[in-house]
Amino acid sequence: MITLGQRAPAPSDLIGHLLACHDRIRRFVALAAQAGGAAAGEAEIAEACAAVERYFERALPFHIDDEERSIAPRLLGKRADVDEALRTMEAQHHAHEALIAKMLVASRALREAPASATSRERLRAAAARLAAEFEPHLDLEERVVFPAVRSLLGAEEQAQIRQEQGARRSGAWVPVP
Question: How is the chain split into domains, by residue range?
Fold first, then answer.
């Protein structure tokens, strides 16, 4: 059986929100792997694939924008180790694009032919590869970037980032030059 999971209440603080995003990234990669390896019904597999596709096509780009457009510019230049982590983070975001695209192609193929063993294996393999690439990336952000947000950005800057996150998700965000 494939588990889509429940939505947890959204945290109100910035770091809690970022960690919740990381939890969703991990859960949706795991859901893709689960759909690829599941002995579930075709409708259930198709539903799981559709959820994976929605998350990676719609929600993940918001999180990446949060980090690259709201957090990184505010942290850049404050500490050398943080600058290095931000450069690595951005390079990894770009490197993940091809892996995500490959997983989405595999997910669409499985959603359209949920009985296909070949499609299941392709999605499972793509999800496994993405999980292996995501984990060190998420770990770096959780060990270096997020603690830097707490220690180097004041409450007002963190509140501004939260406002930008909300506006970005509502379609009302306009970057401040």
Answer: 14-168
* 14-168: CATH architecture: Up-down Bundle (1.20)
d(Cα 34, Cα 159) in Å, to the nearest integer? 37
d(CA 141, CA 85): 8
Dump pLDDT digits (tens) for 86-142: 999 999 999 999 999 999 999 999 999 988 999 999 999 999 999 999 999 999 999
- The candidate with the shortest Cα–Cα distance to 24, out of 43, 10, 14, is 10
Q: 114 in helix, strand or coil?
A: coil
36 contact partners, CB below 8 Å, separation of at least 6: 106, 110, 120, 121, 122, 123, 124, 125, 126, 127
Q: What does the block give as tokens for 100?
A: 């995500």
